[in-house]
Amino acid sequence: MVYTLSGIRLPSVPFVYKSSGSCSHGDRRNANVSLLLRKHSLSRTIFAGKSSDSPSSTVAASEKVLVPGSPSDGSSSSSDQLEAADTVSEEPQVLHGVEDSLKMEEDGDIEEDNIFVEPPSGYNEVDAEQNSISSPLVSEDGKAKGVETSIPLDETSNLKDVARKRSIPPPGTGQRIYEIDPLLKGYREHLDYRYGHYKKMREAIDKYEGGLEVFSRGYEKFGFTRSATGITYREWAPGAKSASLIGDFNNWNPNADIMTQNEFGIWEIFLPNNADGSPPILHGSRVKIRMDTPSGIKDSIPAWIKFSVQAPGEIPFNGIYYDPPEEEKYVFQHPQPKRPKSLRIYESHVGMSSTEPIISTYANFRDDVLPRIKRLGYNAVQIMAIQEHSYYASFGYHVTNFFAPSSRFGTPDDLKSLIDRAHELGLLVLMDIVHSHASNNTLDGLNMFDGTDSHYFHSGSRGYHWMWDSRIFNYGHWEVIRFLLSNARWWLDEYKFDGFRFDGVTSMMYTHHGLQVAFTGNYNEYFGFATDVDAVVYLMLVNDLIHGLFPEAVTVGEDVSGMPTFCIPVQDGGVGFDYRLQMAIADKWIELLEKKDEDWRMGDIVHTLTNRRWLEKCIAYAESHDQALVGDKTIAFWLMDKDMYDFMAVDRPSTPLIDRGIALHKMIRLVTMGLGGEGYLNFMGNEFGHPEWIDFPRGVQHLPSGKVIPGNNFSYDKCRRRFDLGDAAYLRYRGMQEFDQAMQHLEEIYEFMTSEHQYISRKDEGDRIIIFERGSLVFVFNFHWTNSYFDYRVGCLKPGKYKIVLDSDDQLFGGFNRLNHNAEYFTSDGWYDDQPRSFLVYAPCRTAVVYALAEDELKPVDG
Hints:
About 20% of the residues lie in helices and about 20% in strands. The model is unreliable at about 1-25, about 30-35 and about 35-155 (pLDDT under 50). By secondary structure, the protein is an alpha+beta fold. A hairpin with a 4-residue loop joins β5 and β6 (about 130-135).
């Protein structure tokens, strides 16, 4: 029998016989059952039995699982990593956030020098001469105590070796922010405290861990690590009273492989190879850790697991020991592209990337979607929902297994193949990484992992996000910082991602998480007791790590608050991101789309698009996945609504609503790219005005209040992308897609988004005209619904002959072809709109036209 689950074929497996006796550390070949059998080098059939095969599935009564229909986030090992004999240390006491520490200062409880609490005496300092770390788990000769000496890491991992040889620059003075923004001087006490806290963290990591480079390789110590003589498994679970490793390899016998705990709360066990030299745990077999915790006996997926799979008929996932034979491991063939001058990002989701109502795969995305992205002219793909999440409808934002790529879409090696293919096409691959919160699940996530609610997270209400129904990390805890930094490093090192879009950063930076708060731009909103300094310092550390070890990597932060210094380098006192997502733009377009055309204000549009901080780069977008979700509307649906169902065929008469919608859809996107930032983002399908909304498969939801929320009968019909609509020459969607492609290619050639020259010469409320120069291009937008203007004078900087290089009214783009593209426009001297020269144009209603000097005229772009 073959089950189909989440787009993966899952043949049933025979019942596994389980001995009631204890299993020794000897030869385990008869106890191993693999859930991953070789199919071919890039794709494997996943065999999944039920974890109820284990002799006990007792869990604490308080444990909960997020099941289909529960609230979703509305926000916004590879075992070829072999064991390294570096330190594994206990956490220092929790680092105080600014609101706590300043309160204690006022109360006289602490002195200033004690805000940072140093690690306890169990931590040994770095041996500077040997450039190695002494550790409770490492003996004087450098060998791990109680475990076998590890063999060298894979020498073919050249990029990993390069990263290790790079050094992360030491902290700077952190004072340049006051030169960039003099208004910050009024908040020097807070900002200097923040930078001082960051410097103390860097010093402590250097002192006790050997630096960020070593500290961020926690995946080489925790979880499963393979050596020449066996497998070591380590887990930080200080709240557990006892622990044992269970799985298919020992017939789920909790008495077979008892773990030992050191004084720092780290549990450990070493499993020697079988007598014939084969590994004690078979690749693809299920594993869990059983712990006796303050909340009861529980079986959990290891926190550092590299792969997990949901079996047919089950809700909780199973941890999978993932260590394929060398001949089956994917080997990267193509170098990572250099960071482009400007980013044009195609935001995507693998699971919904098929035209069919199914969960798509990494392989399908690689073969079908990546070439499309390249052809459209984007230079980066941002992929959502990579980290494993048990609830599909969370859009990937309720992460359960942070180091595991989602098994719904294929295997880890399938994901590597996807990324390598993107690199072959010259595309950067950015991962939508979630470090802002974690799933509330206790069976297959981090919540209550060791039976306490303060393990990875803040305890009590501070550790719970009431709107997202998720847990909030304690960013001041040593082991939490290790876990998260290592997680970021893992995806860059192992999978060759080219950077990250950090989700929910606003929620991280403030203890109120940005909920029910209207940010007005007053600096008191950013630098006060509501700021979570521990979280901000973590963001500084992770940006330090990424940019130090991977200089070409890109970091984008999702921040709606407008936090000053967000995109200033850490050495200068900033948070360190490369780009901020300019989230206010999409909100402004929704606000305008709810109004009549007569109520649109050109000055309001321009202000929103240009309202960003000096020297802080932004990614502009008219809409992202947020606007496409059920309960919201895409721009196309706002504009054309139900007319999209009946009047999008080119052989049928259009309607005024369709004509208006197609025209404004193009104009909105071009003016957003033209003025909104130094990068641009589009969610897949929106380039051609994808109809309707995204609705994940879900069942009926019964709320505690008694309210019932209807489901959609677990339908995938609205959880896909109808790329066929944009490709169909007989539909009007094709014109919008062609315009978006032309817009991307225009930016690729002229690089106007990153030009230092930007001048807005006209915002005419009567004519509804916006005119600006960016780079060497002149943009003319006529938002008037009926008025077209002959001999309209346009101010410009450079003299010469101008020609049209992009016209939204082109018939190819679904327009009315009212402009002659062979026309030449000659400048005349004389000041106009504060420009030294000008030329005359015809500006039809609801059009956007871009002009360039004839010698700079658009050249063909290879698609």
